[in-house]
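seq:
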Amino acid sequence: MSRSANDDHRMSALFIADLHLSEQQPAITAGFLRFLARDAVHADRLYILGDLFEAWIGDDDPNPLHRQVAVALKLLHRHGVRCYFIHGNRDFLLGQKFSRESGMTLLPDEKVLEYCGHRLLILHGDTLCTDDISYQKFRKKVHSALIRKIFLSLPLKLRLHIAGLIRQHSHKSSSKKPDDITDVNLRAVINLLQQHNVNWIIHGHTHRPAIHKVPQCARSACRAVLGAWHTQGSMIKVSANTIELIEFPL
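struct:
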């Protein structure tokens, strides 16, 4: 559904994911900055559920885009909007230095929220894609503390080169996989709902925006999926009465 720029989101939490910000896509960055000033500034909280950036090779990367985003998020923080971040598969190396510069609070991979009478579980969403076995094996390797330490110790130019090669391989590999492999696994969703005793899951990663009722679940439950910011913005708004998926022009 569409919303105007003047909607009031006070006493609401906004959720976004999969912006994949990069210097090669300035229109998306401009749309994100407008979203912060127009929509997020009127909310109570903003949750970014991963892949804010197309790639992150370390907090020491002097990319001007990172500083631009940090300044905008810090301004949001100064306006009293609490901002939280869950790592995605593209920016899982984002660390405490950028967190301090931006005013964002880093959250664990899975976080249960109690907000406006709702009990929610939020996560990036890639761990739900358990049928994509090759990706899950790759994820386990690159998320190991040793691999992270080795990668971040490399010269910046080498890290940038490696990240580019990984992205190329990822795009090529994903294009060959059927949709049911790269989407979430129903049993993984149900297990997570039961494990955390929640009725809602909010995530991104799959780039398939929708709100689904979860079938085969012992109780009424829903899964809200955020869209990627390719040609339009996507957010989920949680307030006292509703949980809704909202799409809007950049």
